[in-house]
Specification:
The chain is mostly helical. It has one domain (2-277). The chain has helices at 2-9, 11-32, 42-63, 67-78, 82-85, 90-114, 116-126, 141-158, 162-179, 187-193, 200-204, 211-214, 224-229, 239-242, 253-256, 259-264. Helix 2 packs parallel to helix 9. The protein is globular and about 50 Å long. The chain starts with a helix and ends in a 21-residue tail after the last helix.
């Protein structure tokens, strides 16, 4: 348990080291062996996508100083949640907690595609006309706030060990950058790996302009959920190099690349019916 105690005591160092370390790894991989040519200059794309990441981090720190780790600590102190009520093996509690929190992320992802008002927020993520590791952290601040509230509720109900929340946060951040990478694994490796976790090729399908492809492969970490709930799609119909990334309506860099356009995007156009059920995105989307 010494390692667990060390992780909890050095939570910020662990998270920041993993975050910036993964940026270096993915940026180097994309530079040396990109899957697709970028439509927007790399420096502009990275500056704006990472700009909204740091804006979100600043706003979250203001709104929720304790964040998910603080809620997990409070849940332990107050005996809130399943694992604080029932005594189980710490290892089992950590594993189950990570898996359950990943399932919640999957269900939340389906929800933000299905509900029109939430889709308006989530389309900031999808409107990126390029697909690289910075896309994985590109979300509107309001969606980040809603996601954090859902995470808080999950922690309070589940009562996960604090270290499980830390590990989940680290894994989710690393996997989001990995599976949004502008890279490709060798075909045989990809076929094997995606039985367990989401690969760049698997998730890239989800960022297609074609609505049936965009409404598939919702997982961020474990690939199990898409296979289990019937939302799995193997490959894009136009291939990974030929497919078009983004949303048909929004192709202008002022709307989808620059930070002010991203922040304003949810408030453009009309609210229509359930987004996930339509065969084509309308001009208002």
């Amino acid at each position: 348990m010494e390692f667990v105690d060390w992780v909890v005591a050095n939570e910020k160092v662990v998270r920041m080291s993993c975050f910036f370390g993964m940026i270096v790894i993915m940026a180097s991989w994309e530079y040396l062996s990109p899957c697709r040519a970028l439509l927007v200059p790399r420096a502009v794309h990275w500056a704006n996508n990472l700009g909204i990441v740091f804006l979100n981090s600043f706003l979250l720190r203001l709104a929720f100083p304790a964040a998910a780790i603080g809620v997990a600590m409070t849940a332990v102190e107050q005996n809130w949640g399943l694992f604080n009520y029932y005594s189980v093996s710490p290892v089992l509690a950590i594993i189950v907690s990570i898996v359950v929190m990943d399932l919640v992320i999957y269900l939340q992802h389906v929800m933000v595609h299905a509900v029109p008002l939430l889709w308006r927020l989530h389309r900031v993520h999808h409107a990126d006309i390029d697909y690289d590791f910075t896309t994985g952290a590109r979300f509107h601040p309001i969606e980040i706030f809603l996601s954090m509230l859902i995470k808080f509720a999950t922690i309070i109900l589940l009562g996960p060990p604090v270290v499980a929340v830390i590990l989940f946060e680290v894994i989710l951040n690393l996997m989001a950058m990995f599976n949004h990478g502008n890279v490709r694994l060798p075909a045989a490796v990809d076929r094997f790996v995606r039985w367990f976790v989401v690969t760049p090729d698997m998730h890239r399908v989800h960022h297609s302009v074609n609505d049936d492809e965009a409404n598939s492969n919702f997982g961020f970490n474990l690939s199990l959920w898409d296979r289990l709930f019937g939302t799995y799609r193997d490959q894009p119909r136009d291939g990974h190099v030929g497919m078009t990334i983004g949303i048909r309506k929004y192709r202008d860099a002022r709307d989808v690349t620059w930070l002010p356009g991203m922040l304003w995007l949810p408030f453009r156009g009309k609210i229509s019916d359930y987004a996930i059920n339509r065969r084509q995105w309308s001009d208002d989307e």
